[in-house]
Amino acid sequence: MSGLIQPDLDLAASMFEALSQATRRGRGIVRDSYGPGEQAAHTIVRSVADVIGLEVAVDAIGNLTMTLPGRDRGARRILMGSHLDSVPQGGNFDGAAGVVAGLSIVAGLRKAGVVPPCDVAVMGIRAEESAWFDIAYLGSGGAFGLLDPACLSIRRSDNGRTLESTLIEQGFDPRAIRERRRLLDPASIRAYLELHIEQGPTLVEKRLPAAVVTGIRGCKRFRNARCTGEYAHSGAVARPYRHDAVAATVSFLHHMESVWVREEAAGADLVLTAGELFTDPALHGPSKIAGDTRFVLDLRSLSDATMEAVADEARTAAARIGGEYRVSMELGGTSDSPAAIMNGQLRSRLSGLLERPFEMASGAGHDAAVFATQGIPTAMVFVRNDHGSHNADEAMSIEDFGVGARALMGLLMDFPF
Amino acid sequence: MSGLIQPDLDLAASMFEALSQATRRGRGIVRDSYGPGEQAAHTIVRSVADVIGLEVAVDAIGNLTMTLPGRDRGARRILMGSHLDSVPQGGNFDGAAGVVAGLSIVAGLRKAGVVPPCDVAVMGIRAEESAWFDIAYLGSGGAFGLLDPACLSIRRSDNGRTLESTLIEQGFDPRAIRERRRLLDPASIRAYLELHIEQGPTLVEKRLPAAVVTGIRGCKRFRNARCTGEYAHSGAVARPYRHDAVAATVSFLHHMESVWVREEAAGADLVLTAGELFTDPALHGPSKIAGDTRFVLDLRSLSDATMEAVADEARTAAARIGGEYRVSMELGGTSDSPAAIMNGQLRSRLSGLLERPFEMASGAGHDAAVFATQGIPTAMVFVRNDHGSHNADEAMSIEDFGVGARALMGLLMDFPF
User: Fold this and answer.
1) Distance to chain B for A387, nearest Cα, Å
2) pLDDT tens across A308-365, in order?
């Protein structure tokens, strides 16, 4: 029977087109968290839910839930979804693809007249991106009452308005966050399923349309690392007398790359990035030894223990290399998010539904991580996407999207628990 | 006899005090090239020359020459001097110490009634620092007709006025530069002697008051090196698929440090500095792999051949490492100034006049380099100075200054040619 029941890919294609038309600003997509761009996406998605005939609800902080009622309304439900916001000048698929997938699957079920054993709901989650309010997972974290109420004072990066006043302006209720109110009960959720474009090049390089995600890497980030030496004339100071912040930083980062290579060779999951690195433009100069650098060191792994061990190694190396180069190297504190492992049973079932099974880690964070850390069985499907994400050039074909959506639908039709 | 004839250190101390009072702006010294700060220094120096009773002349571009007439007015003369400008918020001694040394020596000769066999003149040279007009040696280069007339269009870094209009405003004649007029005939100069503070920490570290300079390192600078990769999500791209500009730049600079260590071990004179290094603040981010870096690589040596060889090695390494990291690493062109070797006879004579002889290279450029490249026998004495130069904390004692000035005076009293 399930072979005849398909996600509605025509509906999906028309939704992507509508989203693009409504939220394209110049080359890129702007669906600003809790702003008019995100709201436009919610309006489109909600109107599709109305056409399909789903039950629609919006929670106190604006998350949209669109439910296809099941036979047993009291049974734990299955959620599908993703977020509807984007980074500034982002692409059309990051986030939205997961919501469109859920609706195309539910539309397929409805069209085939299937009434699932439990409710199947699609969530359009708010504000996953940290680009606007400098905090990720506002929508999913808020739904589970996980947010620190202090986040209400965070100001939007573009217009400077606080999250609190923004929520009020949009007709939502910041008290839900202030009181850490739980809007979603983990015990009522059987599973959370999310389709998302891959944000790296792995599937393009491997010529595969889709993959099953093993887990979402945690992140341990030295956000404010700095090296302090002494400014001096580049020609006039011999090597033993230098306090060269650039030379020390180069030596440190080079060492950390060798740690990465070593960990990889030992089979550990790890990525390591220094994405910001700079001397002080007010003080540096072409004929000066640099007295300062600032940099970020971003560690990610499926294993919290690996991140901890590599961070320890970084601290030890910073002290040792600082001494060697007669500078002070202070990595500072880390901001941490734990790794989130996907449900093994759902993973293997999904892999079995792919023509060419392939599993990979997600390096980027997703709402699925929040659901997984609430103890909810969670699974993710990645769809091939060229040019990475968070830019105007995201490129996902509807065929590849169909491969991922069909796998999720197959899982739903024969759910293991 | 020469034991009784001494540089006038009281005069020197009072000149340093007058210069400090006239040109201190906040913590630091501001003697802006062809501006009021430099002019204030010229006025002070010139008034001292008048008191001593020297012949004073100012050339078409503002260089000041103060001459103690010798017995044979037609004989080739000996010049002493240095520049009177400073960098913004510089110190009181860089440059000025050489002019003060010359005047304190000439004052000592005059006080002792010595009439030297040839004219001995002190030069207050204009605009040695490149901080104001982005070109070094304007005064000495211009005196020998060496400047590219295009330099007249260079705008002062602070007020945006061209060198040409600035010269006119100050009452000087830009046509001398436009016509590459030679204001100073190398054939008329027996020798050029310059006292200067050391700009590095070597004499402080070695607890020596003064040193004889072997030569002035040339400089070969890759001013606009850049590495271009691809921006991507820091968590989502595995190592083999990255185009990480920071990782490639770190690998390159780390390699160049190993080249430096190797050259030093082989006995070569070399210093190597990357004093500016930065990702693009408009595009970088803590969770992004960096797609761009810019940096400067500054090579200096007493040997032009060493600089050439290390620059070749840098180009080869940039191509190789760019390939390894799947980025484009373009070092761009170099700006070059050749090394200038000091006169061997004058060097050894000066060394013999120091209680604790010590020779060292000058890593910074000095007007002496211009005189040396004109084939004029040139010598330099370095005086110990704490905290480096080009900053408000330059610290030279009058005792150490006296050690250097006495060596120069000793050389003058028993000149070898």
Assistant:
1) 9
2) 999 999 999 999 999 999 999 999 999 898 999 999 999 999 999 999 999 999 998 9
With H, G, I as helix, E, B as strand and everything else as coil, classify residue B74. Answer: coil
What ipTM, to 2 d.p.?
A: 0.83
CB-based contact B275 A362, cutoff 8 Å: no
Quick one: A138 and A204 in the same domain?
yes
Looking at the complex, does the CB of residue B281 fall below 8 Å from at least one CB of chain A?
yes
Residues B6 and B113 in one domain: yes
- Which of A122, A126, A140, A95 minimizes the C-alpha distance to A193? A122
The shortest C-alpha distance from A282 to chain B (Å) reads 11
- At B296, give phi and psi (nearest 5°): -115, 135
Domain at A400, CATH number: 3.40.630.10
Long-range contacts of B46-50 (CB under 8 A, 24+ apart): B46/B124, B48/B11, B48/B15, B48/B103, B48/B107, B49/B103, B49/B122
Here the tokens at position B29 are 């010294």
Chain B residues inside the 8 Å CB shell of A384? none
Strand ranges inside B55-208, DSSP E:
55-58, 64-68, 77-83, 120-125, 189-197
pLDDT digits (tens, 9 = 90+) for A111-124: 999 999 999 999 99
Asked if B13 has any chain A CB less than 8 Å from its own CB, the reply is no
Instruction: Count CB neighbours of B262 within 10 A.
Output: 13
Number of domains present in the structure of chain B: 2
CB-CB neighbors (< 8 A) of A333 in chain B: none
Residues A402 and A382 in one domain: yes
Cβ within 8 Å, pair A287-B281: no
Question: A273 vs B250: CB contact, 8 Å cut-off?
Answer: no
Q: Are A4 and A112 in contact (CB under 8 A)?
A: yes
Residue contact B202–A241, C-beta within 8 A = yes
What are A142-178's pLDDT values in tens digits?
999 999 999 999 999 999 999 999 999 999 999 999 9
How far the first Cα of chain B sits from its last, in Å, is 20
Closest by Cβ to B201, choosing from A237, A279, A365: A237
What is the C-alpha to C-alpha distance for residues B120 and B191, in angstroms, rounded to an integer?
A: 10
The answer to whether residues B366 and B328 belong to one domain is: no
Q: Does one domain contain both A154 and A247?
A: no
Q: Are residues A348 and A282 in the same domain?
A: no
Task: Test A363 with B237 for CB contact under 8 angstroms.
Answer: yes
Range of the domain at B259: 218-337
Assess whether B345 and B397 both reside in one domain.
Answer: yes
Q: Which of A337, A367, A389 is the last residue of a domain?
A: A337
- Interface residue of B243, B287, B288, B325 to substitute, partner A, most A CBs within 10 Å: B287
Per-residue pLDDT of B241-289, as tens digits, reads: 999 999 999 999 999 999 999 999 999 999 999 999 999 998 898 889 9
Q: Residue A2 has what pLDDT?
A: 47
A300 touches chain B (CB under 8 A): yes
A181 vs chain B: nearest CA distance in angstroms? 30
Pairing of strands B378-383, A378-383: unpaired
DSSP one-letter code for B123: E
Cβ–Cβ gap B363/A389 under 8 Å: no
